[in-house]
DNA sequence: GATCCTCGAGTTCG
DNA sequence: CTCGAGGATC
């Protein structure tokens, strides 16, 4: 080979690679890009075309080589330079202190040691090899001694630098540097990915961990490249030169080399402070950008940690303070069915009781029968239960690997569990219905709804009492509550003088509820609080409403042909006409004058509010009332049309959405200012 | 006709 | 809170 001089093309290629690597780092590691996506694309395309013209200049660390190479037959085995250890677990602060006492007895220096606390990332452990600063090999953890070579897949991970240091001028990497990291998918990206998969009718992933692990074990790297894998590095496994001897310095050193490191690591002078920090995160785990199953407490002094040795695979110098599990498996004992107030039949899971996120779960909804069929959930299965930030636990799906073969596919119920009527599946609907208008289960749910908070608000009439009243035959439709007498209640289980009197008084009070609430209370399909309010304003009374035709109803905002049809259908049924008659005779017949509500100046007219979180000085109901009093509107979800989002304590996803859409966020004081007409 | 928005309905444990 | 579906809007 004749000696070549460095050509202009070569220089340009090198410059482009440096720039692209730098911008990758800004974008994927620091999350702070300095150029637009458009400019980035331009650089990338230029490099790509130069490399196409000069294939001899393509190198392994070129950013264009992230996706490349042919699918593999299988992964090559790789020996790790040292054992990739796991971690001992502690499930409580006491267990952490016990760990500390044990190691303090082994070495007196522990007593005055500092600790680093970092999230215990729930992803796939990877081992990354850099030779002379170039990424040459990436492996899975495997059994801790030997892993699999997944270099091609890891190269598609954008936050993994193909060369370190990324920026010149920082610390230099030793000739050989092997780091330990975690490949994972950020929560936000996981959700985005699943939404996209769902839209395309593809199978979604159960959780970020499985998705990440699955993606990295693909033999075809182009599949991996389509998954939004991220990386966090937190330890040095091996190095040929001097590297920091303290964990806190290691993190900083890795960060300075341009490697992504975990967010929210912290240093503590005492164990107590470290434990406090770990406990603090236990209740705020949702704020971490990725899933973590605990916090790791490590001795900052790595030489001291090393000298303590290990118990089996668990090094003594660190411990994982586990969060209460938010994802567990348990046995599906049976599938039960509920009857809703509209007659919809919904399945629910009866589970072997299991702790999830600090509470014992025995039951969980299965949404609808399509869900059961799609996930192929069978009685006897082990199922994965999740109870994330929300309170409500739900079944994610069966663990197919744990099947014994005895589990039979679930078949739809054919009869109503309450009245035995044949169930019908209406055309074009997911739901299965019990169409028996006199079905006792439906009546119970109807009565519960009628007495509920957004309806007639009868205190003391919940589902238990509703069940008793229906079972005793004291109530055959919701209007019957107004003809109940004290003696009726006294024959019910758990009722004595006082309770009967209280309930009767509550029923009496409910007679003066507004027309809007009464319309809502009737439980007409498709008519809820909002629509009931619209109907009340439009018709002013039940008399006028019951004479309405489809054409009159579709004139009301928010009511289209379907709901109009549903209302007319409800009004036309004999039992409902008799129900209305009973209400009238009981003098439960409110009216609403059209101009009654316009007392306050309508200064918020046309403005839409969304409430999230808990307000300190007022309940959400009060806030809603106030906003509506001034002509404003309160809706449940944030959209472009939302004017204000009012955020209280521990707000939900709506706050994030508001930020995303650039909608003004008010705190409680801000809401008061707006209500008072000051500021905006 | 497609997309965006809003409403309704169902939901668990302590 | 989240989903699905009905309704409104472009």
At the fold tier of CATH, the topology name of the largest domain is D-amino Acid Aminotransferase, Chain A, domain 1
The CATH fourth-level homologous superfamily of the largest domain: DNA ligase/mRNA capping enzyme
Report the CATH C-level class of the largest domain.
Answer: Alpha Beta
Contiguous helical run count: 24
Tell me the total number of β-strands.
Answer: 24
Percentage of residues assigned to helices: 25-40%
Cα end-to-end separation = 74 Å
The portion of residues forming beta strands comes to: 15-25%
Uncertain segments of ≥5 residues (pLDDT<50)?
A: none
- Secondary-structure content class: alpha+beta
User: Tell me about the biggest sheet?
Assistant: 7 strands, antiparallel
Mean pLDDT across the residues is 84
CATH architecture call of the largest domain: 2-Layer Sandwich
| Inertia-based shape | elongated
How is the quaternary structure best described? single chain
Radius of gyration: 32 Å
- Domain tally: 5
């Amino acid at each position: 080979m004749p000696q070549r001089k460095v050509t202009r093309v070569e220089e340009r290629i090198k410059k482009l690679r440096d720039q692209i690597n730098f911008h990758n780092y800004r974008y994927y590691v620091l999350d702070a890009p300095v150029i637009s996506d458009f400019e980035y694309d331009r650089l990338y395309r230029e490099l790509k075309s130069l490399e196409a013209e000069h294939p001899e200049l393509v190198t392994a660390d070129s950013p264009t080589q992230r996706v490349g190479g042919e699918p593999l037959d299988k992964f090559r085995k790789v020996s790790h330079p040292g054992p990739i250890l796991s971690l001992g677990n502690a499930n409580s602060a006491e267990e952490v202190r016990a760990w500390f006492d044990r190691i303090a007895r082994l070495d007196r220096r522990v007593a005055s040691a500092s600790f680093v606390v970092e999230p215990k990332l729930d992803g796939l452990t990877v081992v990354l090899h850099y030779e002379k600063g170039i990424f040459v090999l990436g492996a899975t953890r495997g059994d801790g001694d030997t892993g699999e070579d997944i270099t091609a897949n890891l190269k598609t991970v954008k936050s993994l630098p193909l060369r370190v240091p990324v920026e010149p001028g920082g610390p230099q990497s030793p000739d050989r540097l092997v780091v330990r990291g975690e490949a994972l998918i950020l929560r936000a990206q996981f959700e985005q990915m699943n939404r996209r998969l769902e839209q395309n009718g593809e199978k979604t992933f159960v959780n970020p961990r499985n998705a990440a692990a699955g993606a990295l074990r693909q033999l075809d790297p182009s599949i991996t490249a389509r998954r939004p894998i991220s990386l966090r590095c937190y330890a040095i496994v091996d190095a040929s030169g001097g590297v920091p001897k303290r964990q806190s310095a290691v993190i900083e050193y890795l960060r300075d080399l341009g490697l992504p490191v975990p967010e929210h690591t912290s240093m503590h002078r005492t164990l107590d402070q470290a434990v406090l920090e770990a406990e603090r995160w236990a209740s705020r785990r949702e704020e971490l950008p990725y899933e973590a199953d605990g916090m790791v407490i490590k001795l900052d002094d790595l030489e001291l940690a090393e000298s303590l040795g290990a118990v089996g695979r668990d090094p003594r110098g660190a411990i994982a303070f586990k969060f209460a599990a938010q994802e567990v498996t348990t046995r599906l004992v049976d599938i039960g069915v509920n009857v809703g107030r509209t007659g919809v039949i919904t399945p629910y899971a009866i589970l072997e009781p299991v702790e999830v996120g600090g509470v014992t779960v025995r039951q969980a909804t299965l949404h609808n029968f399509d869900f059961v069929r799609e996930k192929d959930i069978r009685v006897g299965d082990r199922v994965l239960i999740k109870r994330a930030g929300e309170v409500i636990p739900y079944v994610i799906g069966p663990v197919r690997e744990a099947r014994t073969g005895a589990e039979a596919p679930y078949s739809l119920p054919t009869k109503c569990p309450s009245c035995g009527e044949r169930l019908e599946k209406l055309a074009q609907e997911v739901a299965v219905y019990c169409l028996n208008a006199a079905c006792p289960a439906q009546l119970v749910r109807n009565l519960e709804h009628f007495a509920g908070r957004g309806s007639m608000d009868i205190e003391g009439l919940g589902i238990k009492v509703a069940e008793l009243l229906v079972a005793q035959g004291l109530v055959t439709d919701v209007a019957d509550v107004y003809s109940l007498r004290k003696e009726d209640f006294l024959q019910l289980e758990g009722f004595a003088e006082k309770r009967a009197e209280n309930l009767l008084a509550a029923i009496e009070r409910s007679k003066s509820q507004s027309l809007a609430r009464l319309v809502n209370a009737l439980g007409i399909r498709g008519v809820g609080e909002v629509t009931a309010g619209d109907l009340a304003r439009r018709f002013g009374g039940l008399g006028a409403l019951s004479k309405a035709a489809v054409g009159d109803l579709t004139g009301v905002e928010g009511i289209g042909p379907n709901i109009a049809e549903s209302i007319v259908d409800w009004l036309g049924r004999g039992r409902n006409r008799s129900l209305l008659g009973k209400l009238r005779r009981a003098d439960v017949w409110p009216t609403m004058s059209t101009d009654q509500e316009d007392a306050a100046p309508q200064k918020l007219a046309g403005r839409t509010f969304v409430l999230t979180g808990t307000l300190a000085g007022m309940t959400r109901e009060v806030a809603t009332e106030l906003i509506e009093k001034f002509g404003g509107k309160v809706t449940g979800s944030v959209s472009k049309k939302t004017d204000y989002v009012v955020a209280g304590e521990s707000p939900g996803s709506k706050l994030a959405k508001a930020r995303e859409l650039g909608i003004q966020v008010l705190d409680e004081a801000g809401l008061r200012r707006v209500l008072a007409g000051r500021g905006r």
